[in-house]
Amino acid sequence: MEKILVPTDFSDNSKPGLRFAIRLAARNKSQLVFINVHHIKRPLVLDSDKAVSFEEFRQKEIDKTQLKLE
């Protein structure tokens, strides 16, 4: 086993799974790959001003999720 894919939603219920994956990877000298899928809904109104603000919002959401993962 070279890589272990670890899905997480950052909830309290996912923490035991994360710990298990970390122990398993340490025992087998495997690499961990974490994944978190988060769908950001786009506004229904297509407006150039809203598109810019959506991109800013999207980047903030990505940054927050990245921080949680780290």
Protein architecture, described:
The chain has 70 residues and is α+β, with helices and mostly antiparallel strands. The chain folds into two domains: 37 residues, no CATH class; 33 residues, no CATH class. The protein is 51% helix and 14% strand. The chain has a two-stranded parallel ribbon with strand order 1-2. The chain is elongated, with a radius of gyration of 17 Å. The two termini are 23 Å apart. 0% of the residues are buried.
Labels describing this entry:
2 domains, two-stranded parallel sheet, 70 residues, single chain, alpha+beta, 2 helices
Short description:
By secondary structure, the chain is α+β, with helices and mostly antiparallel strands. It has helices at residues 15-28, 48-69, and strands at 3-7, 31-35.
Which consecutive residue ranges, at least 5 long each, have pLDDT under 50? none
Strand composition percent: 5-15%
Helical segment count: 2
Shape: elongated
The percent of residues in helical segments reads 40-55%
Number of strand elements: 2
Radius of gyration: 17 Å
